[in-house]
């Protein structure tokens, strides 16, 4: 029997999708149990499996015997607006999830790069936080628990559905940002917020140096904006660099923050308040801008080093497509570059104790550079041990380390 | 190897003053903050530097001897007790604040630094370390990391895991590993996130880089009193549903209120109230915080609060908080022993679960006082008892098990901030299936293949599905979505000093 015939016998015709250009069979299990069944079989048969969400973020180009897409895992079993929690399957698109939550007065404070239809599982697995990380933290801070299926088909639950939980080891945080190396996330328990009653964005244009200083002044003022993002001209579609400040919350709180913003920047009036549809378009373009160029990575340094890191990027790979949160020390870069340049940049950054995580790239770049590259002292054997634990047969095709 | 010979070898590393072998010295370390578990360690060693920690662990690795890391011993799960020949490594002498980096809002500390001392040291910079467990005047940052400790202000600012940027850890072999990065971005998979809350099972943290948080410029502290516990629970739900995130949202029931008011920590709580809520709001602007405080007061009155008053000044605020933070001490007036329980339920389930707990207490003839983090749904039912009364001890265990069962049935979990340790091992199979427990056990073996670090804690090995062997039949289809249905907890025998 061929792989396709075996999968058809296991999961039925409904799980078989049309293959991509590389003719790798694309399988869309309809339930977490079906994912476990498929991966258990892959482990036994020695099949190599690549993971896909909606196919809108990581290119579907890794060499594999079959592609597993979570796109049919798109149910939302529970939304609890009173508790501000929800449980969603990993294949649901963020746009659909947002709408379902908004209908119940709830909000997931995550704005990852990529197209609106990116799956929840992809966002969790790659830990790709957007500008809202400034006010609401990284992706892992929004997770109460996950259920995942290992490379040999075991289903594992971690965490739970309540606000605090220290029962057992935190495998939820381990899964967030592992790029699927430790299994396929099938179900996610989320921490929500009440849908903000006020949500405004102010933008200021200027030189990068000037705006970086203003961002530092805002952070030092005690203001806690939801987003404080420095955006390159090309990405912002403006003539100059842009500093965007997003304020969310009650109208009273936002009004107070707007006054504080003016005071923190020397009298105010220089920022331009965007209309609601303008603000939506600004943040959407920023997110989508990272999904169209071949390579995207993120780096994370200390806040005070942001300017130095931006200089370094400009020097080594250019700074046409950059978005940075100077007060959080987080920078995302996108563009076209080579394996050599990425490896050299990563070495330079490592000497500064700054990790570079390759978020998105064609397979030849991913496999050469790795999502993570070399680890810090002593951590490599632990990561390798965890991979062997969660994927003992090496069924999951994930380029973690590079060459 | 004899205990004497081992002590001599350890003394060669740390000095004989810092090795305890006499019973009178070791008995100090036989318990933590939970009086239902006692284990007398054979040897206690107190290294004073990271180099000494590494040397001690390498010696124990060479000898194949298990060990248990311990901070100040304020834990509430029996997690830092050593037994079966394990050496207790006490880290309180590693108490240096290595660096405060105000510009980047971070600090590098050793594991024995006391939580409150770190906040005191950073206050002149306008910063503080946000996780504030009730034991913060004694507990250490290393212990907080091991337990993923919380505290009242974690509702807004997050638990320990949200504030740890990087770690240097020492594995059971004595090898050092660097996790995380100075800016907090994971370096590869999030091993910092995995280590925090692992209850010492993965190794010893010797350097901890923490995130510091700006001190709020405006603070309002409200005290609301209710004549019905259910109404107080509904007040909590009303605040959360309104989208207001207080810095803290704490509840105390009548039994707790009276214990506090009878003690030196009397805070002026109304003695006849069925419950009080302590609500704190903070921010950078007076006007916005005042407006939020007014909104909260209105919500609480709608929920049935008899009165809502705002602390007039810092002194009154401190007094209100002292009553809350010292409530566990005040309960010492009620009986000679106290079990501080810890569980979490969905916030909307609080009123029902509190009534269920009251029913359990009445059925077993026990005094249960509730003081807890209501905003997180993190309950602390405190059972007062006399450990010399064997029958009462048995009732305490049965009642504890029923309380855990009720919280699980409500969709909750068995611990929100105290950890599993020894005390809650028996409850782990109630919330995790054998496969998930097996996964945790397998992860532990990645860090510590011989299982020599803090053996016998967190994961009940007998309940795990085997992960180490090559898998045969039996994998694959499972029912449900991974959330186990609640089962009836079985009480374990009580070990009392």
Structure, described:
- The complex is a heterodimer of chains A (403) and B (497).
- Chain A is an alpha+beta fold.
- Chain A has helices spanning 3-11, 32-45, 94-103, 120-126, 133-136, 171-175, 208-220, 233-236, 251-264, 276-289, 306-316, 339-351, 363-369, 379-390; strands at residues 16-17, 26-27, 49-52, 66-69, 78-80, 85-89, 106-107, 143-149, 155-159, 184-191, 193-194, 198-206, 227-231, 241-249, 272-273, 295-300, 321-325, 330-335, 356-360.
- The radius of gyration of chain A is 21 Å and the shape is globular.
- The two termini of chain A are 35 Å apart.
- Chain B has 497 residues and is α+β, with helices and mostly antiparallel strands.
- Chain B folds into four domains: 3-90, Uridine Diphospho-n-acetylenolpyruvylglucosamine Reductase, domain 2, CATH 3.30.43; 97-214, Uridine Diphospho-n-acetylenolpyruvylglucosamine Reductase, domain 3 (2-Layer Sandwich); 218-328, 2-Layer Sandwich (Alpha-Beta Plaits); 335-497, Alpha-Beta Plaits (2-Layer Sandwich), CATH 3.30.70.
- Chain B has helices at residues 3-14, 23-26, 50-63, 115-122, 141-147, 154-157, 191-195, 229-241, 254-261, 286-302, 314-325, 327-330, 350-364, 390-409, 428-431, 434-447; strands at residues 19-20, 44-45, 67-70, 87-90, 97-101, 106-109, 127-128, 164-170, 176-180, 204-211, 213-214, 218-226, 248-253, 275-283, 307-310, 337-340, 343-344, 367-372, 378-379, 381-385.
- The radius of gyration of chain B is 23 Å and the shape is globular.
- The interface between A and B is large, with 94 and 105 residues.
Describe how the helices and strands are arranged.
The complex is a heterodimer of chains A (403) and B (497).
Chain A: H1 3-11, E1 16-17, E2 26-27, H2 32-45, E3 49-52, E4 66-69, E5 78-80, E6 85-89, H3 94-103, E7 106-107, H4 120-126, H5 133-136, E8 143-149, E9 155-159, H6 171-175, E10 184-191, E11 193-194, E12 198-206, H7 208-220, E13 227-231, H8 233-236, E14 241-249, H9 251-264, E15 272-273, H10 276-289, E16 295-300, H11 306-316, E17 321-325, E18 330-335, H12 339-351, E19 356-360, H13 363-369, H14 379-390
Parallel strand pairs in A: 2-4, 3-4
Antiparallel strand pairs in A: 1-2, 5-6, 6-10, 7-11, 8-9, 8-10, 12-14, 12-15, 13-14, 13-17, 16-18, 16-19, 17-18
Chain B: H1 3-14, E1 19-20, H2 23-26, E2 44-45, H3 50-63, E3 67-70, E4 87-90, E5 97-101, E6 106-109, H4 115-122, E7 127-128, H5 141-147, H6 154-157, E8 164-170, E9 176-180, H7 191-195, E10 204-211, E11 213-214, E12 218-226, H8 229-241, E13 248-253, H9 254-261, E14 275-283, H10 286-302, E15 307-310, H11 314-325, H12 327-330, E16 337-340, E17 343-344, H13 350-364, E18 367-372, E19 378-379, E20 381-385, H14 390-409, H15 428-431, H16 434-447
Parallel strand pairs in B: 2-4, 3-4
Antiparallel strand pairs in B: 1-2, 5-6, 6-10, 7-11, 8-9, 8-10, 12-14, 12-15, 13-14, 13-18, 16-20, 17-19, 18-20
Helix pairs in contact in B: 1-3, 8-10, 8-13, 13-14
